[in-house]
Write a structure and sequence with these properties.
The protein is an alpha/beta fold. It has helices spanning 3-14, 25-31, 70-85, 107-110, 115-120, 128-132, 148-155, 182-190, 192-201, 207-212, 225-237, 241-253, 259-273, 277-287; strands at 43-48, 54-59, 91-95, 100-102, 137-141, 144-146, 158-162, 166-168, 204-206, 218-220. It is 45% helix and 14% strand. It has a six-stranded mixed beta sheet, sandwiched between helices. The protein binds (2E)-Hexenoyl-CoA. The site of (2E)-Hexenoyl-CoA has 20 residues, from helix 4 and strand 6.
Length: 297
């Protein structure tokens, strides 16, 4: 390995803040916090943003390109649960490194796994923490998002991608199929033909293609993706958390039901906002030409 790369990796392992190699120092003085949760081995978890109201989880297993081993998923799930319970956090960002968001589930860990162990051990159950989280989660994707890495990104509510990000479901290449939502979520988001092509070939696709298919909502220069995802989290944080939760639930319902059921669900959620103090505050603030002061009630 090139010596400077060794030094760089050493620094990255010992000083968590420098794990964002392409983000400028001004980014850190603006966004970083001293409250990094240091209990983790495979991730970094901290509160960021001006108001420290965005939870940032950085997958941090660089030697294995953030392959999603059990330990990493367990820590990710733990960090998401903590942010979900933390009333000061309104949105969550999940990111990786510039080389890899995540190169998939850990193939070496799965190698000798058996069918019966999958069933008795409840394989993949902890992954659901991300898709079941009530708070908005933004995936900030650079580099490889393959297999379970692609599925993890798609489980999030919004994907921001670096222009060189590479997505794909290469499971067929190693004799298995996507198991954390790839066949289902890509088909629902992008249609049958694209989902089939991606899942049946294992071919990678670019950030631009993911954007064109509606899988990614915005593309940025790689060194801007995390910063922009945090800004998005901060923008969402300006609103009432309870209303955001109802809204997220309603959009997610579009993936579960037909149009008539979905519209009925949306109307009930809309009616429900009138049971909150924040709906009254939001409309009153508009009429009084001032900023709303939401209480999340
Ligand atoms: C969740 C349910 C269903 C999901 C299933 C899946 O996701 S299946 C998976 C779907 N995903 C795939 O099939 C993608 C598999 N990965 C690749 O094809 C390539 O690594 C690459 C093209 C991403 C990068 O190529 P590159 O030449 O730039 O880098 P490199 O290849 O030299 O890797 C560096 C180190 O990382 C290691 N490592 C990487 N990925 C994994 C992994 N998933 N696992 C374990 N380890 C992994 C690699 O072994 C090596 O470690 P070593 O041996 O030096 O100790």
């Amino acid at each position: 390995m090139f010596p400077s790369k060794v030094f760089y990796n050493l620094i990255k392992c010992t000083i968590p803040k420098l794990n964002y190699p392409t983000i400028s120092n001004s980014f850190f003085s603006f966004y970083s916090t001293s409250s990094t949760d240091s209990q983790y081995k495979y991730i970094l978890s901290e509160k960021v943003g001006n108001q420290k109201n965005v939870g940032l989880v950085t997958l941090n297993r660089p030697k294995a390109l953030n392959a999603l081993c059990d330990g990493l998923i367990n820590e990710l799930s733990n960090a998401i649960n903590k942010f979900e319970k933390d009333e000061t956090v309104s949105a969550i960002v999940i990111t990786g490194s510039e080389k890899a968001f995540a190169a998939g589930a850990d193939i070496k860990e799965m190698l000798n796994q058996t069918y019966s162990a999958n069933i008795t051990g409840g394989l993949l159950e902890e992954w659901d923490t991300v898709s079941k989280c009530k708070k908005p989660i933004i995936a900030a994707v650079n580099g490889y998002a393959l297999g379970g890495g692609c599925e993890l990104a798609i489980m999030c509510d919004i994907i921001y991608a670096g222009e060189t990000a590479k997505f794909g479901q290469p499971e067929v290449i190693i004799g298995t199929i996507p198991g954390a939502g790839g066949t289902q979520r890509i088909a629902r988001s992008c249609g049958k033909s694209f989902a089939m092509e991606v899942c049946l070939t294992g071919n990678q696709f670019t950030a631009q293609e993911a954007f064109n298919r509606g899988l990614v909502s915005k593309i940025f220069q790689p060194d801007k993706v995390v910063e922009e995802a945090i800004k998005l989290g901060e923008r969402i944080s300006q609103h009432s958390q309870i209303i955001i939760q109802l809204c997220k639930e309603s959009v997610n319902n579009a993936f579960e039901t037909g149009l008539a059921q979905g519209l009925k669900f949306e109307k009930k959620q809309f009616y429900g906002t009138f049971a909150t103090e924040d709906r009254k505050e939001g409309m009153t603030a508009f009429v009084e030409k001032r900023q709303p002061n939401f209480s999340n009630k």
